[in-house]
């Protein structure tokens, strides 16, 4: 399997993180995303006409979109069946719902980070306000989950790919000027994600201590 | 005199980097921020460079025409970058002779926005103590955490802070490194917002690779960090060198952005240094003697 990868991309990190958790080996091809804009070059556009990362190639299959790739990897390589609960319609629906939510986090928190860090020209105040709206919803959801004795975004006792999809741009949000100070349930959940067996960080994401 | 929010003549009377020359699209107006002012710049096909205080006649993205610039600012083209000045420009910019050696690979590794003052970013660049904890497995690793004794001086003739005899154990000092090694470092701070680091090249021990950090203060607590490498390395591609350095810088970024206060305190009693911070102490004193107030917390009189 080959991942077209850029270290500082949170969406590429989702795939590296999940493959590490699955303990599945893969090769990477570094794409000069910044400043080279290689993801907009003709050979890359041939793989993904949207001009975005990540992209994977696996046994001849080319797939784009972080959430789609997580779904594919879980369905194909997770022998436990826990990360993408195909046999459980209720939880499967929840996963799909939060995967779409993760896309919203990309459109807001990640956009603000690109503005502040890499000088993308966009309305950063709107992006930050949008991220805060989503973080408030996620924080409340996680708080109620904790009250019900649940640790993860979707119901059940095991994390799902929804946790992997939402985590990167939440944990990188401060690079876009979005503080997590007002979201205590999100902060506790971030620590739980960091304690998943096989967890790895990226530039800007540090490991945490073992649970007390 | 220009009408500017920034009134600190120490920072106004400096050359400031705006962009790597490689990254300026020709024939188009670009816009950025320097010392709280909006600055535009452009380069045409003949290589004519201009910078000016932004105005509504020549907006970012519009065609650039050097002849249309009525109030140009001073420009300097040096060390691969475009520099400008909002005050009295100094006659010279610091030396960087390695940049001009014919067999060098000069790789601008990217410019990054960081929410921190320039002084804090320079200090982090000068600090070896954080390597094992922030750049784990690359520039340091436990238990090799000791910062050995080193020398610091402020060169009066060249007006720069220099730290020599620095040594640190590094698992992967550069992309071309094959194994961990004790690496020799020299640090130079030849400009209030620019620092260079010289480290023995893994491919030729008699020469030094140079890593530089040229900071453009957008505001007192926000910078554009221009990073780059000037290396003796005929094996790795530009992209690989760039990727290595971006990984390192990405690790530093959250550390920088969580510094408090964001401005650099110049009072020696404000923060408690350890022996390993000798270079930082000399740097703060040097800034204090210059009378810098922008982006710092000056010593109270």
Automatic annotation (TrEMBL), chain A:
Domain of life: Bacteria
Classification via CDD domains: GST_C_7 (cd03206), GST_N_4 (cd03056)
SUPFAM superfamilies in UniProt: GST C-terminal domain-like (SSF47616), Thioredoxin-like (SSF52833)
Keyword Oxidoreductase: yes
Enzyme's top EC category: oxidoreductase
Record-linked Pfam families: GST_C_2, GST_N_3
GO molecular function: oxidoreductase activity
InterPro entries on file: Glutathione-S-Trfase_C-like (IPR010987), Glutathione-S-Trfase_C_sf (IPR036282), Glutathione_S-Trfase (IPR040079), Glutathione_S-Trfase_N (IPR004045), Thioredoxin-like_sf (IPR036249)
Ranges of residues in domain GST N-terminal: 1-81
EC number: 1.8.4.-
GST C-terminal domain ranges (all copies): 88-212
Keywords noted in UniProt: Oxidoreductase
Record keyword Oxidoreductase present: yes
Matching PANTHER family: GLUTATHIONE S-TRANSFERASE-RELATED (PTHR44051), HYPOTHETICAL GLUTATHIONE S-TRANSFERASE LIKE PROTEIN (PTHR44051:SF2)
Protein name: Disulfide-bond oxidoreductase YfcG
Taxonomic source organism: Roseovarius albus
UniProtKB/TrEMBL annotation, chain B:
Keyword field contains Nucleus: no
Keyword Methyltransferase: yes
Keyword entries, A-Z: Methyltransferase, Oxidoreductase, Transferase
GO MF annotation terms: methyltransferase activity; oxidoreductase activity
BP GO terms, sorted: methylation
SUPFAM superfamilies: Bet v1-like (SSF55961)
InterPro entries: Cholesterol_7-desaturase, VanA_C_cat
Domain Vanillate O-demethylase oxygenase-like C-terminal catalytic: residue ranges: 116-289
UniProt-listed Enzyme Commission number(s): 1.14.13.128
PANTHER family: 3-KETOSTEROID-9-ALPHA-MONOOXYGENASE, OXYGENASE COMPONENT (PTHR21266:SF60), IRON-SULFUR DOMAIN CONTAINING PROTEIN (PTHR21266)
Protein name according to UniProt: Putative methylxanthine N7-demethylase NdmC
Annotated organism of origin: Roseovarius albus
């Amino acid at each position: 399997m080959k991942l077209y990868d850029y270290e500082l991309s949170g969406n590429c990190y989702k795939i590296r993180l999940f493959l590490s958790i699955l303990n599945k080996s893969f090769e990477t091809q570094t794409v000069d995303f910044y400043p080279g804009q290689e993801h907009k070059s003709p050979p890359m556009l041939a793989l993904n006409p949207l001009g975005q990362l990540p992209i994977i190639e696996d046994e001849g299959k080319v797939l784009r979109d972080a959430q789609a790739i997580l779904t594919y990897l879980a369905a194909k390589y997770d022998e436990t069946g826990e990360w993408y609960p195909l046999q459980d319609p209720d939880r499967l629906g929840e996963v799909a719902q939060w995967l779409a939510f993760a896309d919203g986090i990309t459109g807001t928190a990640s956009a603000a980070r690109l503005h502040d860090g890499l000088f993308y020209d966009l309305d950063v105040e709107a992006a930050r306000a949008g991220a805060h709206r989503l973080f408030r919803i996620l924080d409340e959801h996680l708080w109620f989950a904790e009250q019900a004795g649940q640790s993860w975004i979707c119901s059940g006792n095991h994390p799902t790919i929804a946790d992997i999809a939402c985590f990167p741009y939440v944990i990188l949000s401060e690079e876009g000027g979005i503080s997590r100070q007002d979201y205590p349930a999100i902060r506790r959940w971030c620590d739980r994600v960091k304690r998943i067996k096989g967890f790895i960080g990226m530039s800007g994401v540090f490991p945490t201590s073992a649970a007390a | 005199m220009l009408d500017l929010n920034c009134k600190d003549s120490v920072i106004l009377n400096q050359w400031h980097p705006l962009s790597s020359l490689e990254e300026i699209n020709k024939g188009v107006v670009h816009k950025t921020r320097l010392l709280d002012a909006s600055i535009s710049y452009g380069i045409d096909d003949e290589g004519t460079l201009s910078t000016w205080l932004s105005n509504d006649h020549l907006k970012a993205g519009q065609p650039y025409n050097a002849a249309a610039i009525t109030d140009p600012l001073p420009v300097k083209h040096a060390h691969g970058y475009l520099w400008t000045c909002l005050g009295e420009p100094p006659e010279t910019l610091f030396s960087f002779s390695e940049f001009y050696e014919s067999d060098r690979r000069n790789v601008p590794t990217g410019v990054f926005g960081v929410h921190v003052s320039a002084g804090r970013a320079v200090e982090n660049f000068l600090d070896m103590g954080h390597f094992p904890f922030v750049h784990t497995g690359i520039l340091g690793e436990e238990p090799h955490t000791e910062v050995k004794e080193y020398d610091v001086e402020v060169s009066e003739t060249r007006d720069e802070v220099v730290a020599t005899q620095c040594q640190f154990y590094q698992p992967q000092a550069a992309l071309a490194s094959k194994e961990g090694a004790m690496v020799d470092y020299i640090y130079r701070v030849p400009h209030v917002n620019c620092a260079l680091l010289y480290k023995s090249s893994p491919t030729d021990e008699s020469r030094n690779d140079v890593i530089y950090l040229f900071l453009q203060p957008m505001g007192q607590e926000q910078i554009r960090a221009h990073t780059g490498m000037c290396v003796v390395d005929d094996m790795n591609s530009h992209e690989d060198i760039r990727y290595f350095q971006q990984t390192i810088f990405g690790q530093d970024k959250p550390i920088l952005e969580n510094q408090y206060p964001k401005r650099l305190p110049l009072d020696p009693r404000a923060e408690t240094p350890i022996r390993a911070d000798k270079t930082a102490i000399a740097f703060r004193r040097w800034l204090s003697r210059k009378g810098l107030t922008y982006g710092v917390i000056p010593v109270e009189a």
